[in-house]
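pls design
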């Protein structure tokens, strides 16, 4: 594409939709580029579009320079809060320090950047960091011509796939590394919790939190279980009380080795030499023109 404009972003999302489809509980996280917002609305009208909290905070800092240091921690805690009550308390503090920042964040839409307000569970995807990282790895190869560039990208992704596939094979009896860490921390917290009391068939009271274990309801009033989809300390305390030894079945399947292995199961075979390509006739017959170039000022 020539530049990042409405047309090129719409084209990108159309291709993405062809390849990936549209899924329930899917969301788009971006740096709030105007063209991305417009294109997502056109191509994925039913998919919510959220902000990368890092980019959003940069915008706030640009607009209100004085408060940047004092409010940064409060902002990130708000964005990652698990309960609306905690969010409101933090926002009240922000309001006291600088009312304009509160207004700015309100205008941006709470559901766009606060985990607890989003309409679909965005899990740990609070930033567009993954795209920035990949971008960072491609700085040098971006200098190449398009075919050479694609060749390098393919090799890079192929090697990442291979490495991740290998890592997933180490985690057969555990969750993926980061998720297992969360589970371990929660397990240690649970040992300090007061003995739980069963209130109703599936309702338990644990150290000031109410945990519902009914099949479909897997929720805890701390908010963590339903958002992280990893057992919170309260839920672990209940399961320990019930003599459950293996906590993994109660965590999301996405964090298990099967899902990790499946994600990386297809090897990315590098392209052979151009001489050895066997492209379909209709592809060969197609003439590809360069994009219409908009001459920039100067
Ligand atoms: Zn809990």
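designed seq:
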């Amino acid at each position: 594409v020539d530049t990042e404009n409405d047309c090129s972003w719409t084209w990108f999302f159309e291709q993405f939709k062809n390849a990936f489809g549209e899924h329930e509980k899917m969301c788009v996280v971006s740096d709030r580029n105007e063209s991305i917002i417009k294109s997502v609305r056109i191509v994925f009208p039913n998919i919510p579009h959220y902000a990368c909290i890092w980019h959003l905070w940069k915008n706030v800092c640009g607009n209100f320079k004085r408060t940047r240091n004092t409010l940064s921690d409060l902002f990130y805690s708000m964005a990652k809060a698990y309960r609306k009550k905690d969010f409101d308390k933090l926002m009240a503090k922000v309001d006291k320090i600088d009312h304009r920042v509160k207004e700015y964040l309100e205008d941006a839409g709470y559901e766009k950047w606060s985990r607890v307000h989003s309409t679909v569970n965005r899990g740990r995807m609070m930033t567009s960091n993954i795209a920035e990282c990949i971008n960072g790895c491609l700085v040098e190869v971006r200098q190449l011509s398009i075919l050479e560039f694609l060749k390098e990208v393919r090799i890079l992704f192929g090697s990442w796939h291979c490495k991740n596939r290998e890592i997933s094979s180490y985690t057969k009896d555990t969750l993926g590394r980061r998720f297992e860490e969360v589970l371990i921390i929660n397990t240690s917290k649970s040992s300090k919790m007061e003995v739980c009391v069963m209130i109703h068939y599936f309702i338990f009271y644990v150290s000031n939190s109410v945990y519902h274990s009914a099949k479909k309801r897997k929720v805890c009033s701390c908010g963590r279980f339903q958002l992280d989809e990893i057992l919170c300390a309260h839920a672990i305390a209940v399961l320990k009380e019930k003599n459950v030894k293996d906590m993994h079945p109660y965590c999301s399947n996405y964090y298990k080795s099967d899902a990790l292995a499946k994600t990386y199961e297809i090897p990315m075979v590098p392209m052979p030499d151009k001489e050895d390509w066997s492209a379909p006739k209709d592809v060969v017959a197609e003439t590809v023109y360069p994009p219409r170039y908009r001459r920039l000022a100067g």
